[in-house]
Amino acid sequence: MILNRILPAFFSLLIFNQIALAQIPKLDTRFGSGGKVDAFLGSMNKDVATGVAQTSDGKIVCVGHDRLTTSADKFIMARFTSAGALDKTFNKTGYNAIDLGGNKDFGYDVAVLPDNSILGVGFTTNSTQNIVVVKFKTDGTLDPTFGVNGKSTIVFGNNDRGKCIIALPDGKILVGGTSAGSILAVKLNADGSLDKTWGGDGFAQIQSSANVEVNRMLLDPIGKIVFVGEVDNDGGPNPASTDFFWAKLNSDGIIDTDIQRIGLMGKFEVCYDAAYQNDGKLVMVGTQNKPSAVPTQIDTLVNYVVRLNEDGTVEKTFSKDFGVNLAESFKTVRIMSDGKIICAGNVNFDNLISRLKTDLTLDNTFGGSSGFTWSIAGSKDEINRMYVNSNFQIICAGYSTTQPGDNNFTLSRLNTEKTVAVLERDENLIPLQVSPNPGNGEVRVSYQLQEPGVVKFEIYDLSGRLLTTIDAGSKTTDPQTEVMNLSYLADGTYICRLMSGNGFSNIKIQLLK
Known about the structure:
mainly beta; about 525 residues
């Protein structure tokens, strides 16, 4: 009798997994609503998420800006649970809108510190523009020990924009952006004060004769500081054209490589993001627009990828026209553990995600020849940033426009074929035991941490869907047992994942009721 019950369940599960894998990537229906989150945060529905990161306990933080009045934009930080709901333990609302001091305040990038406190960077605009770094405690309120009441305003020139932030292993903070059209980097101490031992009194600059816009700052494999973005006017017949660029500082703030242009004359090319491969090559993504020579014809817009060798020379390029003439660009990129390249952005006012093989050709098994597209709730959707979590799920952040001028923060979570594989793998970082196994609904999970920490359990099915989350709280190094009532789940095999600051471990649980 038991065998008769197991075999149909096994084959049903096998068929389900084959179907699921054939549709990779696939929106994770256990996240938000059908894999999507559409979050209204501000009083005027003008929210744009520009940066995203994850805390060690699996929560998702987004930074951006929000229009609170007809004439005032505010810096905003929001935090979501791992299931995609606004985390009401964060400032009691799930978000915190901050006045940085000007009429127009913008947030652009976010970094999570080891204690799960959060740093955000942006800039404030009044008669001048100044970079501002904001620090939030884990409860979502400003940290009064940082800067002045949680905000560190960086005064360098009169036209400074902060776009990027990196929390360094030694506790220092690296900020990147522009000043009067040139590259600006700033190093702060952990308390928000300038690190005057670095660069020139805490500042480093790469000056440019043409206007530069920094869109991403990252560290290369040996810790040098790399900037990418766009630089005006490549000298071609179109004076409004721009090029991709990259530049590099040594870790001490001294210039390593001046601004290097990558582009074709007469084209409008913008690099929005970059990532390093394991072999040290740099992948840059963005958009390329060739203006039409005929005023009545629409310009040609394509998604564009450039890969550089370690010496900075162009190794290969990739361009893809998905068949529309508006809103077509890659805005963000991540490298998977197998070397494949995930690119996300927008096409035809929908979210877009594509995967490139290691030879920089389109992977048609990932969403097909046109990539994978989806909408959130509006007439215009755009992804600005993404990351890949430990389950090889892709989390995208951006905004959705429901009607002209009305935007909401948006998140999406997608499963990949690796999501299933990683959930079935037992890392053995924290030894787990389950009894009884198979169980009839109630099971006991026993474990022992190497160091004290906060413990959370996640239960997944074998398609990679998150079914439930169990917060076990703070635990000591004594032997622990968590009693779980899983009787509401159907008979079958599930993955139980334990997550803590010690690492994570997986174990299979079978239910036969």
